[in-house]
Request: fold
Amino acid sequence: MSVLESFQAAALPEHIKAMSQQEMEERVWEIKRKLGPRLFMPGHYYQKDEVIQFADETGDSLQLAKTGAANNGAEYIVFCGVHFMAETADILSEANQTVLLPDLRAGCSMADMAEISQLEKAWKKLQGEFGDTIIPLTYVNSTAAIKAFCGRNQGATLTSSNAENMLAWAFAQKERILFLPDQHLGRNTAYEMGLPLEKMAVWDPIRETLEWEGDAEQVRMILWKGHCSVHEKFTMDNVRQVRKENPDASVIVHPECMFDVVQAADAAGSTNKIIQTIREAPSGSTWAVGTEMNLVHRLMQEETDKTVYSLNPNMCPCLTMNRIDLPHLLWSLESISSPAPHHVIEVDPATKHEAWTALERMLQQ
Reply:
């Protein structure tokens, strides 16, 4: 048993460790029936099947953000996703609602690539370089502190579903955009809107430098040097292999993939767009999909009249998205009836207010 497995086993109560999968599933359904409308469980598409089966609402980040904002009746929100999603749920929730994350280790490597101290240093330097011509936009895959920074600096949040709409909104406000934390989503979206690569620079938060050659006045997009550790593993070699071995296959990828991969694909779009495109595709068609493996496997099981497989045959599921499993979900649900539910996600009031402003600007568009 690995160190991680040992930690996981030690963290769970003995009675849950002794349960079979069937017993745990029956117990989860029992708690859901007992709590009824007092409980709301949103689940991201990338979650394991053993968890997503219990979700009251499934979706991508935008869908779940909107659902969270509209849902004000549940006393408890048990979020089956990652930490920044649970933070977003808390930001959008009412004062009488409690948000729980079944496993606190369910984070996001991309969100961790932009820390608030790094952003504050970058903002000071970029303001010195470009003056008051920049508006910050952050992907929802970011911490509450990053969202709050955008909120107090006239910026907003966005998702892969509405990135183009939000970039258009931001360019109407200021001459330049600082895009956090995923450089690939920012680059791919801006290019699709007609902005040439020559007008995009990259900010390196480690070296605290702007990666750019030429006239700085030409810069319109400043891309934070961050990425998704899953989507960056889809490569041009993967695309070339599909074209060689199955020339009739269509390649569809998420815009968090690298620029050359997106350009070489037949289609690119958010998680929701990928699902919708494949569901509406002709029977008998073949799809090589560049996104998280849990979703790809689910599409393989559901769209049986088509051939669906991963663009990268060696891809593994997102490690942090897979932290939440059935035992931890049950443990979280059982804690609701205790005096102190565990793994409660609370954003401090000041950060919550400013982050809410950034989210609200997105939801109003």
